[in-house]
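Exercise 4. Each item below gives a protein and its sequence. For each, produce the structure-token representation.

Item: TIGR02391 family protein (Streptomyces sp. NBC_00008).
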Amino acid sequence: MSIDIEWARAELASFLKLTELYSPPDPPGVLVISSSLANRGGDREIVASAQVVEKILDRVLPRWRTEVPDDRNKSVNRWCQHREAAQRADAVLLRDAEVRERLGDDAPQLSAAAMHRWVWDGARALWRSGHFREAVTAAARKVNAETQNKVARRDVSETALFQSVFSKDAAKPGQPRLRLMADDGSDTFRSVHRGAMSFAEGCFAGIRNPNSHEDGLPELPEYEALEQLAAFSVLARWVDSAALDAP
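Answer:
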């Protein structure tokens, strides 16, 4: 898990301390019969802390907003869901490395947040609500749109777009190219651009199109959707780092 665990746990602990519930003492000379509970911290402090804690929760427990019950937010305190999620996240952070080591699964983990910004920016909102198939489709659209922006073209998209930009042919008016390396006439130059073109076609024909055009498909498992996002991240990095070749 690529996160500063010590810092994250400290932020969670601070939030839990601020949102701790207690029964306020009665004002002097007044007897109040009430079961209402208050938070230890002030509203401004809690809100400021929550801004950071929510980002931690989004990384550690991506589906906390839907999986952690929120029914006590109205009946007890508005921060109940956040508190339970923070407690769960703290347990994950505390035990994650140990559990993976003990179970023999200490392989590197893939984080969507570490993927190319076009991909994660496109997918983030849908991903966090558990709409994995739609998130992949949104990421594909984002990569397509950013590629169109880079070459200033709107007349082609998806497979046709990438066939054009990664073509080995010289750039023409209205048809700029993206070069992953200088054209030195070598087999490597031809291979690299042929591979990029084929890879892009595979991403859109094999991933984007089925996700978008098939009604009634079951939701993708999260790990499978993550693999598909990774494919578009590779393509996005190639496009982003490529040199623009325009006549």
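Check: The mean pLDDT is 90.
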